[in-house]
Design goal:
By secondary structure, this protein is an alpha/beta fold. The chain has four helices and eight strands; from the N terminus they run E-E-H-E-H-E-H-E-E-E-E-H. It is globular and about 55 Å long.
C-alpha cells in the first residue's frame, strides 16, 4: 500500500505504535465520514489521556479504482491532519482487507459499473498494537467515550506489561 502522500508503507512502518484502522471509501455518502469523525474524536481524547500521538488513526480505502492518493489525501484532511490514508492496487487492498477480515463487496455491474456506485462493507475500527497484531474491534455503535476508554485501558495494561519505548 501507499500512504496519501504516495509513499509506500508496510505493517512494519507502524510497529511500535498503536493504530486505530478503518476500512472505507471516499465516495461513501454518510457512514465513512461519520466513522472518521468518530475516530478523529477518539484520537483527540487519547492524545489528552495517553499523550500526543499515542494512537495513529489509519484510513484504508476499499475502493482503489476511484481512490487514488489525491482523493484519499483530500478525504482524510476533512477529519484530522493526523489520519494516515492508505490506498494501493486492488490486489494490495484485497490482501489488507483479508488480513484484517474486513468484509466488502464492490458491485459487479456486468462489467460496466456506474461512476457513483456504493460499496457494502464492515463498519468497525480495528485496534492494532505495537506488536502489529490485532488487539480489539470497535463497532460503529460504540460512542466516542466508550471507544476511547476501551483503547485507553488496553494501552495502559500494555504499558504495564511491556515497559519500554514501544509502550
Amino acid at each position: 500500500l501507499v500512504n496519501h502522500k504516495g509513499i509506500p508503507v508496510t505493517r512494519l512502518d507502524f510497529n511500535g505504535k498503536w493504530a486505530l484502522m478503518y476500512f472505507g471509501f471516499t465516495n461513501c455518502p454518510d457512514v465513512c465520514p461519520a466513522e472518521l469523525e468518530r475516530i478523529a474524536a477518539v484520537v483527540a481524547r487519547l492524545d489528552l489521556t495517553l499523550g500526543p500521538d499515542a494512537v495513529v488513526p489509519i484510513f484504508v480505502t476499499i475502493d482503489p479504482q476511484r481512490d487514488c492518493c489525491g482523493a484519499v489525501a483530500e478525504f482524510v484532511a476533512q477529519f484530522s491532519p493526523k489520519i494516515v490514508g492508505l490506498t494501493g492496487t486492488p490486489q494490495q487492498v484485497r490482501a489488507a482487507a483479508q488480513r484484517w477480515r474486513v468484509f466488502y463487496s464492490v458491485p459487479d455491474g456486468n462489467g460496466e459499473r456506474p461512476a457513483d456506485y456504493l460499496i457494502d462493507h464492515s463498519i468497525m475500527s480495528y485496534l492494532m498494537g505495537p506488536d502489529g497484531a490485532f488487539h480489539a474491534l470497535y463497532p460503529s455503535e460504540f460512542e466516542v467515550d466508550e471507544t476511547a476508554e476501551g483503547i485507553e485501558r488496553r494501552v495502559r495494561r500494555w504499558r504495564c506489561e511491556h515497559p519500554g519505548p514501544t509502550a
